[in-house]
Amino acid sequence: NYAGPVWYVDGPAGLPYGNGGPGAPFTTIQAGIDASSSGDTVSVKAGTYVENINYNGKNISVIGENRETTIIDGNQTNSVVIIENGEQNPMLKNLTLTNGNAESGGLWISGNTVNCKVENVSVIANTNSGIYIAGSSSAQMQNVLSANNSGEGIIIWSETNTVLNNFTSFGNNYGMRIQGDDLPKDIRIVNSIVYGNQNGSFLDYGSENDSLSVYYSNIEDGQSGLDTTTVIWGDNNIDI
């Protein structure tokens, strides 16, 4: 029996259902996740996968072959990707998430998840927000696009130490929203662009003791909508 640590997924190949080995890949991403153990990688070949995936508390990496051609279609039934069970250092990389329908249609990160890394991911045309991070810590978004979602491009709720680096949000209802009951703290936006969203770029309901730092970024209408959060405008290019 194949035992990893890399689990292979290749739905479009049309092979009989396998055991996840390199010569007998699974046909769904969730099958790869279910077979994996913490520390493993689920390697996904290019293609469109109509499913909704859940990390189910596993500290794993799900990595697509190519961001443009490796697509998860949520079929309007739930969030496309859910990471909400206390995962430590999970990774999502080289994928497009589309056609989800939930409070966060594209990507939901919650449940005391720590140090979640999202790299080279597009979150496009989902119902409600594209990305929702709630009650976790140290999420890192690198080279992420959130576009044409019916809600916010991204919501950061009661989150600490979030970094958005080379993050782009456009064509959404709102560009981003930062708020929460336990208010977000130490949010950094670097080398990012937020523009062309229908009802503005930025909503923030933080407290005066929390900090939001913006560096080398273009935030359309950047200061409008800010409430009482301490904003550190670093070296950047902001459309005020």
TrEMBL record:
Q: Which Gene3D superfamilies match?
A: Single-stranded right-handed beta-helix, Pectin lyase-like
> Sorted alphabetically, which Pfam families does this protein's record hold?
Beta_helix (PF13229)
- From the record, give the transmembrane residue ranges: none
Indicate the segments forming the Right handed beta helix domain, all copies: 82-225
Q: What's the name of the protein?
A: Right handed beta helix domain-containing protein
Species of origin? marine metagenome
